[in-house]
Hints:
The protein is α+β, with helices and mostly antiparallel strands. The protein is about 50% helix and about 20% strand. The chain has a five-stranded antiparallel sheet with strand order 2-1-5-4-3.
Amino acid sequence: MDGESADAEELRRHDAGEQIGHERWAALIAAAQRRACLDRLLADVCRRFINLPPAQVDAAIAHSLSAIGELLVVDRVCFGLLDLANRRLAYRCEWCRRDSPPLLDLLSDDNAERSRWLASRFSRAEPLFIPDVAALPAEAEPERSFWLGSGIRSLFSVPIVYHGQAAGFIGITYEDSPGPLALNEDDLRLLYAAGDVFVQALRAQQVALALADQEARLQAF
C-alpha cells in the first residue's frame, strides 16, 4: 500500500469512529493538504501548455519551475535535455532562490566535459540521488568540484523519457548540509509529470518552428 492509500485508509478509519492520536491526525491532514497543492500545481502546469504559441514555451517552463521550487522548498530546480550520442547535457532553464547563484551561465556547451559523468548517469533513464556531493567518485571529479564550488551539497534528479529513450532531466539541489532530500512519492510524481509536459512542449515547438521555416522558404520562391 502506497503512502497516499495508507493515509486515506487511516482517515476512513477515523471517520468510522476509530481513535487516532492528535499528532497523527494533524500529520494526515497536512499530508492531504500538501497532496492537494501538488495536484493543483500539476493541473496548472498542464493547462499552461495547452495551445501554447512556440515563442512562449520557454517562459512557461521557467514559470513552472518557479512554482515547483517554491512548493518543494528547494534551493534550485533545473531542467535540461540530454544528447545521448555525445553524452552531453543542454541545460535549458533554471529557477533558484534569490540567495542562490544561477548556474546556467556556467553550464554551457563550452563546459561539456564537466557533465560527462552526469550525462552518462542520466542516459540510464534512472533517478539520480546524490546525498553528499563531496563523496562522489573520482570519475565525477569535474562535477564534484563545480558543484561544491557553487555551494551545492546534495541533489536529486528524475529522468525524462521520450519514445523509450532518456531525453532530459529535472533536478533539484540543496545548499545546506548533505543529507536525505525531503521528497516523497507525490513530489516525484510531480517532477516526472512536469518533465513529460516540458519535453512534449519542446518537441511541438520544434515541429512548429520547422514548419514555419519551411513555409517562409516556399513563400520566398
